[in-house]
Amino acid sequence: MKKWILPLAVFGMGSLGVLALSDKGLEVIRWGVQRITEAPGRFVEWNEAAQHELDRLQKAINEMAATLEAIQ
Fold first, then answer.
1. Are 49 and 41 contacting, i.e. CB atoms less than 8 angstroms apart?
2. Using an 8 Å Cβ cutoff, are 20 and 29 in contact?
3. CA separation for the pair 42, 20 (Å, rounded)
4. Which residues contact 26 (CB under 8 A, 6 or more apart)?
5. Could you report the per-residue pLDDT of 35-64, keeping only the tens digit for each?
6. pTM score of the predicted model
7. 3-state secondary structure the chain
8. CA distances (Å), 17 to each of 8, 12, 42, 53, 55, in order?
9. Is-contact 35 42, C-beta < 8 A?
10. Is the predicted pLDDT of residue 18 greater than 80, yes or no?
């Protein structure tokens, strides 16, 4: 496996070079950079939605625990 690391690295770097030199490749790179700059805002949105869902689940669990305590 170790003897494949260098050829794979060279092939990968060459592929990135070809990508950067073509018009379509530059368009893809610009698209990727734009998406990366938008990522922090999307992470914040996802984090808020996940926190809301966790709060909702915690409330449901607390209600179930209260109901079970009342039954006992």
1. no
2. yes
3. 27
4. 20
5. 888 788 888 899 999 999 999 999 999 999
6. 0.49
7. CHHHHHHHHHHHHHHHHHHHHCHHHHHHHHHHHHHHHHHHHHHHHHHHHHHHHHHHHHHHHHHHHHHHHHHC
8. 14, 9, 30, 44, 47
9. no
10. no
Q: What are the boundaries of each domain within the chain?
A: 23-72
Q: How many CB atoms lie within 10 A of CB 25?
A: 15
Burial 1-22 (b: 16+ CB within 10 A, else e): eeeeeeeeeeeeeeeeeeeeee
Q: What is the pLDDT of residue 50?
A: 96
